[in-house]
Amino acid sequence: LGLRDRAKLLEARQAMLAGHWLRASTLLAALPKAWVDSNPEARLWRAEVAARRGRRPQARAAFKALTAQALDTIPREVQAAAHLGLSRLAFKGSREAALREARGAAELLIAGTIFPRSLKVAARLQIARCHRANKRVGAAIAELQEALELEPRSFDANLELARVYLTLKKPLRALVFLAKARKLRPDDKLARRLLARACLRRTPLPPAC
């Protein structure tokens, strides 16, 4: 790639991290197609952008192509991320079969030992969400605790555990994890709503409230 295209690639990555999916899509489309098609990481980004923009068939096909590629031709972490992308797409379906696919894909991610920690945490979170959707609360808690052992400062894992404990009508236990989540992202709206729910009718108010 030339300097201009490398700058576009960097800007596309920054746009993705900021959640600016239309901008990321525009920048990736401006890159040489032959180069993107031959680069697994760029293909992964393109698939992720398609998924975030609601282009589910396109994203699913792109993720599946990455997961089907031989491991000696693709970085393991790229293939792991593609499996997780498929898992998220499947989870949005309402059928039990979709949840099984999501759970199986996420479990495949943690079967290896060399995945980056962030992917392992993401996999644990996805498995926990699948368990929670199937009302297997104990299994969800176990997965979330594993995620926090891997990354104690995971906002998503702390928030998800708080949601589980609120579902179990254990607001004081939920407050432990909400307090950690609020420290990590003080302005998060969902964390604020869950905190208000956990503090409702608490007398006296716990310190976290």
Architecture overview:
- With 209 residues, the protein is mostly helical.
- It has helices at 3-17, 21-29, 33-38, 40-52, 56-68, 76-91, 96-109, 117-133, 137-150, 155-167, 171-184, 189-199.
- Helix 8 (117-133) runs antiparallel to helix 9 (137-150), helix 9 packs antiparallel against helix 10 and helix 10 runs parallel beside helix 12 (189-199).
- It is globular.
Principal-axes geometry comes out as globular
Query: What value does the average pLDDT take?
Result: 86
Q: By helix and strand content, what is the structural category? A: mainly alpha
Low-confidence stretches: none
How large, in whole angstroms, is the Cα Rg?
19 Å
Fraction of residues in helices?
Answer: over 70%
The total of beta strands comes to 0
Helix-strand pattern: HHHHHHHHHHHH
* N→C terminal distance: 52 Å
Largest sheet: none
Number of helical stretches of at least 4 residues? 12
Tell me the strand percentage band. under 5%
